[in-house]
Structure formats: C-alpha cells, structure tokens
Prior knowledge:
By secondary structure, the protein is α+β, with helices and mostly antiparallel strands. It is about 55% helix and about 15% strand.
Amino acid sequence: MVHISPLNNLRYAVILFALFFCAPSFSNPFVLPMTDEVVALKPHVHMYNGNEYKNISELINSQVVFSKFSVKPHREKHWIKIELENESDLNKRWYLQLGYPSMPMMHAYWLKDNDIETISLLDSQSSYTNRIIDEPLLFLPLDFSPKEIKTLYLHYRILGDAPISLKVFPEDKFKKYQFLNNSINSSVLGFMSAVLILVLIFLALNPNTSYFYFAGLILSMSFVIADMAGYNHKYLWPQNGATAEKNIAYIMALTNLFYVLFVREIMQLKILNTALYRVYSGLILMALLMLFINISHNVFELLIMTSILLIPVLVYTSIWGVRNKLTSSRIFALSIISHTFFVFGLFLFSMLFTNPFPSISLFSYVSIGYVLEAIFFTMTLSHRNYTTKKHYQDSLLSRINEANELLMIEQKNNQLLQEKQDQLLKFTGTVHDLFQPLSSVRMAAGVIPEGSGKDIKNHIDNTVGYAESLLKSFMLESKEEFQGLNSDLILGRLFESVILRLQSSAKEKNIKVQFFNSHITCKINQENLVRILDNLMSNAIRYTQSGGVLIGSRYKSKGIEIQVVDTGIGMSLEETKKLLRPFEQSEVGKQGYGIGLYVVKKLCEQSGFELSVSSVINKGTCFKILIPK
C-alpha cells in the first residue's frame, strides 16, 4: 500500500489550481486559417479594461493580467491581445476586419520575442490616406513569415462604445468581400438615388410639402448608408476622423428631423390629431436643437438615446392611423415596423449589447431598414396620390351628373314654359275668334227698327259691348303674361316690391328691412319666386326680435343665389329639418300654421331651385335659393 503524505497532497492541489485558473496564460496560439473561410477572433481574444497605460511598452512591462474578452466593455478605451500562428511554410497575409469606417483611436502592435512592431497609429486626427489598407471600412493587415508566432495588441476606442468586429479574412476571401460589399452598397445607393430622382420629379410637377420632406428624408438616409459603408470618409471628408464623427452626427440629426416632419405631414396630424401634432413638433424642435449643439459638442450618443425615445411615438402613430382607417395607413404601418425592427431593433441592440446575427454586419441592418422604408413610403405616397385622383375623378363625375340633372330640369322648365305659351296663344286665338260672332250680333241688332225694339236693341248692344270688353281684358292679360314669360326679371326690382309689401310689419317690430339693389337678371317664373320670397321674408320678420333682415343676390359657379338673412332666434340642425315638414313650427315663439317653409320647399322643387339653410342659435338664419344656370 502506497502512502501519500499531506504535503504532497497540497503540492498537487496547488498545481491543479494553477492549471485551472491560469490556463489562458498557457493557452496555445490561435492558428490562422489556411482555407478560404472567415474566422471570428473574439472567442480567442483577451482584454484589459484599464486606462492607466498610455503605450504598449508600459502595458507589457507592468505584466498586467488580461481577462476573457467582453463583448460590451464598460470603459472608453480598451486593450486586447491574441497570440497568432502561421503554420504554413509560406509568407502569408490575412486581413483583420474592425467593422467601422473610422475610429477615434486604433493603435495596433506586434509583439515577438520582446520586440515591439507598430502596425497602425490611427486617431481622430488621422486622414483617410494614413490607412494601411485602402478600404472604406477599417482593416488591418496581418503579415506572417513561415511558421511564425506573434502576439497582436490593439488599443482602441469606438464611437458610441460599440462592439468591435474582429473577423479574419484570408487574402482571396478579402478580395471577394471587397467586390461583393462594394457591389451591394453601390446597388443600395443607386436604388436610393433612383427614388430620390423620382420624388424630385414629382416635386417639380406637383409642389407638395410631403414630397419635399420625403426627398430630404431619402437624401439624409442615403448619406447615412454611404457613411456606414465608409464612402463619406473616403470621398467627401477624408481630412480626419474627427470631421467624419461630427458629420455623421449632423446626418443622423437631419434624418430624424426629416423623418418626423414627413410622418407629421403624411398622417395629417395638424388636422386629425392635435395632441400628436404637438408631440411631433416637440421632436422637431429637439432635432433642431441637436443640430445646433453638435456645432460645439458631439451629440452622437445623445442622438442614439433620442432615437430610442422615438420608437413608441412612431408605433402609436401607426396604430392610431390603422384604427382610424386613414388612407394608406396599413402601408405606413409596414414602414414603421421595418424601421423599428431593423434600424431601432437590430442595429441599436447590436450597438448597445451584441449582434444577434454575427454573420451580418450591424450596418447592414440600417441599409435593409432604410431600403424597406423607402419602398413602403413610396408606396404610401403613390397610393395616396391614386386615392386623391380617384376622389377627384368621382367628384368630377358627380358634378357632371349634377350638371346633367340641372340641364334636364332646365329643359323641362323650358318645355313647360313653351306649353304655357302655346296654351296662351291658343286661348288668345279663341278669344280673338269670338269677336267675329259678337260683331255679327251687333250688326244684326242694328236692323231692328228704332221704334219697335229700342229697348231690346240697347240691351243687346250693352251685352255685346260688355262681352267685348271682357274679351279685350282677357287679350291684354294674356299678352302681358306671354310677354312676362319671355322677358328678363330684374331681381333688384323684385326685392323692392317684396319689401314694400312687408314694410309695415317690420316697422311694428322696429326691425330694419333692407335689400341689395341687384341688377342681376334671369328668366324664371316670377309668380313662384315672389311667393317664395314673401314666405321667407315674413318668417324672418316674424322670428326676429331685434336687428334686421337683408335680401340680396350674387353670382355662383352653378347659377344665381338669392339670400334672405336675419338676426333672429336661429335654429338647430334638427329644428331646421323639422320646419321643412308641413304644419311644423319652432318651439320658440310659435306663430302661424307652420306651413310657410314647407310651401317654400315645394315651390323650389317645382321651379328647379335648390334650397339650403344655415343657422346659429341666438345669432340668426340664412336661407339660400340657388337658381341654376
């Protein structure tokens, strides 16, 4: 039996403890891939979160302990390291993707056999030309000799403290990535440019606030996509990273501004929802304030926070629009869903925590979201234009039908007028023909002897004379009526005659009755119009306690409109409908039989007039009679 002493047990325990807790210190280097595949280095990287070491020499000499890599560190600057190995017998180059178009700080070093080699010393003042690799997104070259092992150190800071990418591309895969990534980004920007051109054409043909805001939104979205692809820093402002950081804050603030302006306009919040309109106005002021503050202080992180606050407002707006069945509200809701899911959801989650789909770049979420929004917003505007045009066409057809109906009424009126004229002419002809037999009677009476039949002769002569006088009066009345049917009626004279008949009633109540001395003329049945105006004026005087009554006329697009306006007791809408029925009276101050307005309604229908009423309780009433052209 072998006896193990307590001291040996203690030694074994110490060795096991060291192996267990210090395993990272003795871990093997990560072998770089020989195949055409992209490898993530994050699982093999170690991190140090301290900020007290300003350079690589101080860090190495201090022999600090690196811990497991944290996806989302809690410090502004970070140190990371990883030991890499090229196991091939050839000189090899790999490319390390950092994942951003620019970084406030990116210092990279090699450590081999205590020798330090600087790879990159980029910071916020570095220009695009200071990069080692000419690629819109930052990459570092990883050059190795055959069988070489060395340790990579990175000291970096990312805008918004976002997570770093750390993917390794073999040389062939890197070239394919460049081609594919540039092709996709160019296609996306080409699509956005096509939408922008289309919107600008619509804006030029039909100046509209919605088109203007949408054009601004598409332009700012395009700049965001171009910036996240690295094109802005490469082509527009390659001077230094600080300029790129400040400009992306401007672009994001402008995107939020145009987004809120467009949603407020397209949903017609000023008319349909004043509370939401005020909320969006506040968000607009906030976006303008961000643009102003960004002049002196970078507001990138503040913009991220305000974008998060925008999510519930947009979601509520889309739900409100769908519930109220607004035009194109469902298509608009789809755009909000895509924006919330891709731009706010996946992108911000990846920025603040971790990318749930590591194979997809976090900037791709923004591009996908913006492209979908551009499609859905374009569909929203197109559908709204289609709906507006359809409504306009329906309205136009309705007006044409109304015009046809008015034409038929006018034709019917003309037919009735012609029939009446024919009847008058027939009657006049008959009366005229009666003069001949009467003349014969008078001649026959003349042969009666003076002595024997003087009384009979006088009686016949008087009777014939009376009959002739009656026939002459019939002839004159028919002549006047015939001429009246074919003459123009001057409305001003008609108004004056109506007021003269009712002046005494108005004076008793100390009411001022006036008429607008209109010279407008029209061919209508004077008798019906006089009865209509008499009834309306009588009612106006009856229900007016103080003030006055005015009658006048004016031209309208559909014809001539006569108005009778009073300052009386007024009526509600329900009471107005009630009074147009027979034997109905106002509950206030019942007078008469309640038949006057019903007579007015029927006379208007018979004459082809349009009767309308507008009234305000305790302020007065206005009756309108439209005489069609």
